[in-house]
Amino acid sequence: MTSFDKPTTPDPAGGPSGDQKAVTQAALFDAFGGIRGTVETMLPGLLFVMIYTINKDVKLSAIAAGAVAVLLVIVRLLRKDTVKHAFSGVFGVGVGVAFALFTGSAKGFYLPGMIYGVGLGVAFTVSALVGFPLLGVILGPVFKENLSWRTRNPGRKKAYVKASLAWGLIFLAKYAILFPLYWWGDATQLGWVLIALKLPPMVLAVYFTWVFLAKAPPPIDVIAEWEEKEAAEKAAKAARAATKEPGL
């Protein structure tokens, strides 16, 4: 009989299987947008800082960045691709554009994203310290385990705690560099440093996540469990109905 209470055990050889590593890598690639999602996230900000570097026109730079962000969403909609990463990107760019146009300062374009990044860093760190890692909440549905790792898969919970702590510390370190530039540097310098720090910290955080999760016990597929349980209940119901038929 299948048990719905025991956690899935790790690979008998004592380490993660090649399949588990591949599944983890593919899930992380999808969850964080992959190469295309990364490019779409970076392009509006890169366009803003390039235009502002050339002509120092905050309004033109902001409008160009916003227009590109919207265009990327339209392209995805026309291609019927996943738009969750594009929509999150256009929302962030839109807030930055609004700040830049309202304040008339190029630094205003970067401020909302910087505040959001610090907030994420604090959230990841605190969630890890209190034992409810944010990364587990985010990735649980991706791995079809939902929140089963909290009570049924302690090894996986430990991996999520480590990964969330890594994300938190990396984010906080990144903005410890950027905020002094925001306060004392010029807008062009801030923009180029921000672009330079856009990808490496993210890659590092995803790498640590992959390392921790690849070594953890495999996820418990609660969706498959629910389906199996539902099928068993239907079969039992059909069997009971059959025993009540006349002539049996």
UniProtKB/TrEMBL annotation:
Pfam families: DUF3159. The chain crosses the membrane at residues 60-78, 85-102, 114-143, 164-184, 190-213. Residues 1-20 are annotated as: Disordered. Keywords: Membrane, Transmembrane, Transmembrane helix. Signal peptide: none annotated. InterPro entries: UCP010219. It comes from the Bacteria. This is DUF3159 domain-containing protein. It comes from Streptomyces caledonius.
